[in-house]
Amino acid sequence: MKDRGRSFLSTTRRVILGAGLLNGLAGAGAALAAIGAGGSAMGALVAGVLAAALGTFALSFLVRRLDEVPAVAPETRAHDSAASEDPISAFLEAAPVGLFLLGRNGRVLLASREARSILPRLRIGTHYSHVFRTPEFVQAVAASLEDNVARHLTFASSPGRERVYSAQLAPFPQAAALDQARLIVRVEDRTEIRNMERLRTDFVANASHELRTPLASILGYLETLQHHARDDAEARERFLAAMTREALRMQRLIQDLMSLSRIELHQHVRPMEPCSLDELAAEAASALRPLAEAEGVELDVDLPGARIVPGDRDLLCQVFSNLVENAIRYSGAGARVCVRQAPASPAHPNRVGIVVEDTGPGIPREHLSRLTERFYRVSTTQSRNKGGTGLGLAIVKHILNRHEGRLEITSTVGKGSQFTIWLPGGTAVDTRNDAAGVTETS
Length: 442
Ligand SMILES: Nc1ncnc2c1ncn2[C@@H]1O[C@H](COP(=O)(O)OP(=O)(O)OP(=O)(O)O)[C@@H](O)[C@H]1O
Ligand SMILES: [Mg+2]
Prior knowledge:
Elements lengths: L1 H18 L1 H18 L2 H23 L23 H8 L3 E6 L4 E4 L1 H6 L9 H4 L3 H13 L3 E6 L7 E8 L9 E9 L1 H36 L6 H33 L7 E4 H10 L2 H7 L2 E5 L5 E4 L1 H19 L4 E7 L8 E8 L6 H4 L11 H6 L6 H11 L3 E7 L3 E9 L2 E3 L8 E3 L2
Parallel strand pairs: 7-9
Antiparallel strand pairs: 1-2, 1-5, 3-4, 4-5, 6-8, 9-10, 10-12, 11-12, 13-14
Helix pairs in contact: 2-3, 8-9, 9-15, 10-12, 12-15
The site of magnesium ion (MG) has 5 residues, from helix 12.
């Protein structure tokens, strides 16, 4: 490979002298600028910088002896201490963009470090058909090599694989210094962006659906009230009550969506106010006693400790309210819900835990990993009937993320569920045993 790099560069040097270096590289700069113009602002910037760098490189070539440029294959230069002396190498190592240059025989002549990290199979000398085997890519490159026309395409790496790439192809000017060079390829791994876009569209679709449903019922009731039930006092009362219920559901949904977006906005800011975890959880659970009574559920709060964790009081309160409310609502009459400290676990070192446990129907295993997804419900009808929006556990997860905490869910169908939250820190004061000692558990 080293030899190939050396012979390639020595050929290059000879050609550079004969071909009119400045013109050629200015042309390459224009090709790269065209790539940038077709892509993102970052792409344009990088391509502009690349064009400028190549221009500078050309000028420096005119005043330096060509033999001073080390002849080392590009992919070996990353670890070469002399790399910084070679402007092309230094540039290709530093450029934060995936670029490679194809020769007229379709083989890779130069590649940036970013291109090699995006495509581990990419090597100097590799044929483009081995870089991606996807027919769209192979056909587009073959066509651009043939007709010298720029192309832009997005494609999956191979059928059945989930990675998505975009490639911009720009012909390399014939008069350029590198006479073998034919095509510049800018490649970008768009998998993460595609996943984010999918999440966003799913979210918008789900949110619209959740809002449309109660809105449609309200409109239906209104129409009935305006026509058939116009003079029916009893129906009017019933419909107004149903409309109020639906409107409240919409209000709850909007509140939850706003809450989620507020939490996400500050996702990376960890709240550090000292919070008494056990007291907070006990308060939040006790506020739900009336609901437990109404549902015929026994609520047992056993939190004598006073462990202090860094956090946001209101957000942590929201976590416990959501978990205890779920336990009460989904367990049904006759069940028991218990809120207590979780015993220390080696799986969660340096964290303290609180478990919300119920003797409800339990949750089938296949749902457990999806419960914290937005709008995910085990039974949509049951959750809707209970006024749920399907956002409660998504909010819990986001709040815990902000606190660098964890949520652990275990459940056995027919026996019940345990939702345990783990938070870092926890200066434990055990009030049960005389409250004298302060035990550092972190
Ligand atoms: N303790 C539990 N026992 C049984 N199922 C549960 C329990 N907690 C949650 N679930 C299931 O998980 C689903 C998601 O809960 P989540 O709290 O995210 O939404 P929700 O309760 O439907 O609506 P929201 O909390 O936004 O009002 C629920 O719809 C329910 O099917
Ligand atoms: Mg809920």
